[in-house]
Description:
The structure holds two protein chains of two kinds. Chain A is α+β, with helices and mostly antiparallel strands. Chain A contains nine helices and 21 strands. Chain A has two domains: 4-221, 3-Layer(aba) Sandwich (Rossmann fold), CATH 3.40.50; 238-376, CATH 2.40.50.140. In chain A, β20 (340-343) and β21 (349-350) form a beta hairpin. The radius of gyration of chain B is 23 Å and the shape is globular. At the A-B interface, β6 and α2 of A face α8 and α9 of B.
Amino acid sequence: MAQVRLSQVRKMYGATMAVHGVDLVIEDGELVVFLGPSGCGKSTTLRMIAGLEAISSGSVEIGTRDVTKLEPKDRNIAMVFQNYALYPHKTIRENLAFGLRMRKMSAPEINQRVNSAAEMLGLTPLLGRKPGQLSGGQMQRVALGRALVREPEVFLLDEPLSNLDAKLRVKMREEIARLQKKVGTSMVYVTHDQVEAMTLADRIVIMQSGHVQQVGAPLEVYDRPANLFVAGFIGSPEMNLIDGRAEGGKFRFNDLSLSLPQGVRADGTPLTFGIRPEHITIGDGPNSQIFRVGVVEQLGAQTLCVGDVGGCQVRVMMDRTDTVSSGTEMTVSFPPQRIHIFAAETGERLGDHTGSEEAEPPRTSKRALETSEEETR
Amino acid sequence: MVRSVPSRIALYVAALIISIYSAFPIYWMVVSSTRAPQSLLRETSLVPGPFTLEYYSNLLELTDYPSQLLNSVIVAFSVVAITMVFSVMIAYAVTRQRIRGKKLIVGAMLYAYMFPPLLLAIPIYTIFTKIGLGDTLLSLIVAHLTLTLPLGVWFLWGFFKNMPFELEEAAMVDGCTRLGAFLRIVLPLSLPGLITVAIFSFLLSWTDYTFALIMIGSDANKTVPVGLASMIGSFDLRWGEIMAGSTLIALPLFGAFALLSQYFIQGMSAGAVKG
Ligand SMILES: Nc1ncnc2c1ncn2[C@@H]1O[C@H](COP(=O)(O)OP(=O)(O)O)[C@@H](O)[C@H]1O
Ligand SMILES: [Mg+2]
């Protein structure tokens, strides 16, 4: 168990930079998720921590050791690959034991560790089989087991669940969270799936085109996205984003005129106004407007309406309503504390209001969010 | 697949005809090599006998056959060993290292196959005599390598290409060096490919006539196929001895195929076709 410290870690492929100077400290026992669209440099960063990819500049420390120039085998990390990468010619038992045998551990200790990991993951009946005789979910467990038996300082997982079907994915996600809490080893988990990131992470590192966009607890990045990219990427359905300008303390676009949150002072500059579909309230209130429904999507517990407010397309998420249909008009309001304002040119967030109804951004109430995230899927 | 009875019968009949067609010459060779001289040319019976080992003892005691056999063994085993080592290294390098124009390298190696062996053999022979290696086993080994190496590289290239690199990475994370990962993971998984390449290069070298005929002049350095051919017509036509010599050439091939055929079939279908 150890802290992992990345300092100005860069990766160049020829002349193109795939990862631009990442600075990050992963605390002992912390589960950090790298989240971002495909090709943003998540895997490259993870593989630089593993030592599978040479670091172009910067340094990586694990615990107190500078491992920047070490081989993967000397870094004391364990990795789970997207396609499992089980050794096809070895039995499950040999797959689990391989890393321990390479480290010259005694046979009784290898047996003991393999058996207890197999027990923990329910693999005991499969130990004699070859990987070709397992289902996807079972192979995934073996891959986890192979990392687990090693008792490394850090776990590195690269999209470990993306080859599983949706139901199994949720189950394995919970299992990974449980195992990580139980063994208490730091973990870096790469995914492009924001639900996985929100539910698993102690902290999320959001990346785009090789740049870290924001680092924060799941609810922090949800409540206070640092820029337009994060605002659009986190949350499902996507945040409503409207381009307009500030005039006399108001946000204006076409016929729309909405009051800016406290603390945002920007007159005459182009702004982007953001509010999440689930934060628009039905009925009279601050900033109330007429909403004309265009398309209705029934999601079960909730109803998502796509329509028009003052000439802008807006998505509104409401509790289940059976009576709305295309053409329905209703009054909606935009609570000021739920509004996000971004500078249109830089994409940076303006103002320091919290973006949530809580006074402080909460760090612990992850479970509550998990359920609501599930429902919106 | 479920087949109807008539179509199954047809299939078996076809298989039987093909097997007889390809196995009969071999059977005839073995039978003739053990048939006593007085009946060999007169009683052409399908049943073996009368039995004799006369030809074998003649061949081994009165001719150069034993030393030629030794030459063949030296050449074939050297070719197999060198082919294995180099084709594994080259194939691995072109699949895993980022080498400029690696397609061209592999393609260029196959160009050797565009020419009939004779066309290559004559210039190679000239070069070898110039550098003083004419009429040596070494020259024959090198000549055989011009055919076996490209084949081996091309075949193993397909094998390594299909093997996910993550397997080696997993092994490296698990505590292997790059070389260790290669030896412990890649090589065992490529076993069918390795065996196929070994059999192919052995076959090529062991049965080669063209190169041996051109490269080797002296009786002492002849390999079995050339030595056997020179028996025809040199004194009288000794069918029995020729059949016995041919049987001895074919024997190791039968042995190798019988032991390794399952790997061979695996290798053929995994490496070349899908690669
Ligand atoms: N071997 C390579 N050569 C050149 N470019 C690469 C290589 N590997 C990755 N890249 C580039 O680096 C970027 C980041 O890739 P990666 O880390 O795999 O993204 P992801 O976030 O999807 O895991 C991508 O734009 C990709 O094209
Ligand atoms: Mg990736």
